[in-house]
TrEMBL record:
Pfam families: Phage_integrase (PF00589). Residues 4-61 form the Tyr recombinase domain. It comes from Salmonella muenchen. GO terms for biological process: DNA integration; DNA recombination. The keyword Amino-acid biosynthesis does not apply. Transmembrane segments: none annotated. Keywords: DNA recombination. The keyword Transmembrane does not apply. One of its GO terms (molecular function) is DNA binding. This is Tyrosine-type recombinase/integrase.
Amino acid sequence: TKKFVKARKISGVKFSDNPPTFHEIRSLAGRLYKDERGEEFAQKLLGHTSENTTKPYLDERNNKAYVML
């Protein structure tokens, strides 16, 4: 995760005060691949051998937005 933060800073991309973490991006990728290719493909892509390990990454997000103070 520290290497990800370093790479994110080097990229020069401007983020809000709360930039996405490695695991948030990984979870987003898993959900997108699940929608396109199915859960089994997403599980293999994430490198998980257990469906139970993959499920938290593929859980559906609600449509609510939250502001962190």
